Amino acid sequence: MKFPNALEGALVGLLVLSLGLKLGASRSEPVPDEQLFASQVSRFLEREGYSTAAELRPLGMMVRARRDGCRLAIRNYPPHGTLAQAYARLARPVGPLHFVYRGRVSDRAPKLLPLSEYFVGRELRRLGIAAPRAPILAVAASRGCDLGRLRWEAISTFAR
C-alpha cells in the first residue's frame, strides 16, 4: 500500500500500533464472583440475627434469609439493569422487590452512578488495578420485614 505523503503513512502506522497495544493490554471483562456475593451477604445477615442459605439459581446466586416473621431473598443486581422485570417476577412469592445501593434502600434500582462505576472499574481491572465494587442488592422482603432497620452500609462494597 502506497501513501501519498509521509504524514498519512505515519498516522496509519500509529493507528496500527495503538490498536496492537490495546489488544495486547486488554483483558477479558471480569465476571461477578457469585461465591463472594453469597458469603458476604450471608455473613452480614447472620450478624443481624438471620439464618441464611445460599443457592445457585438460573440468574445467579440467591441468598435466602429468615428471622422471626421476616423472609428475605437477595440477589446481586447487575448495574446495567436489564433484569429488573425478571427479578421482580421471581421476588413475588417472597414479597415486593427493593434495591440496596451504598447503604440506601429504594423501591427503584439505581442507574447512573452504578453504571458509571461499573465501566470505570471494568477498565481499571483490565489495566490490572483492583477496584472495589459497590454492589446493588435486589432484596425481596416479606411483610414482616423492616429493611430500614438493617445496617446496609456494612455491605456497601465487596472486597476479597
- Binned strand content: 15-25%
Calculate the terminal CA-CA distance, rounded to whole Å. 51 Å
Elements, N to C (H/E): HHEEEHEEHE
Mean pLDDT score: 84
Outline type: elongated
Strand count, sense and closure of the main sheet?
Answer: 6 strands, antiparallel
The tally of strands reads: 6
Uncertain runs: none
Q: How would you write the strand order of the largest sheet?
A: 1-2-3-6-4-5
- Percent of residues in helices comes to 25-40%
Blueprint of the fold:
Layout: H1 6-25, H2 34-47, E1 51-57, E2 60-67, E3 70-77, H3 84-91, E4 97-101, E5 104-106, H4 112-126, E6 136-141
Antiparallel strand pairs: 1-2, 2-3, 3-6, 4-5, 4-6
Keywords:
36% helix; six-stranded antiparallel sheet; 4 helices; 160 residues; alpha+beta
Summarize the structure.
By secondary structure, the chain is an alpha+beta fold.
What would your notes on this structure say?
With 160 residues, the chain is of the alpha+beta class. The chain has four helices and six strands, in the order H-H-E-E-E-H-E-E-H-E. It has helices at 6-25, 34-47, 84-91, 112-126, and strands spanning 51-57, 60-67, 70-77, 97-101, 104-106, 136-141. A six-stranded antiparallel sheet has the order 1-2-3-6-4-5. The longest helix is centred in the first third of the chain and has 20 residues, at 6-25. The radius of gyration is 21 Å and the shape is elongated.
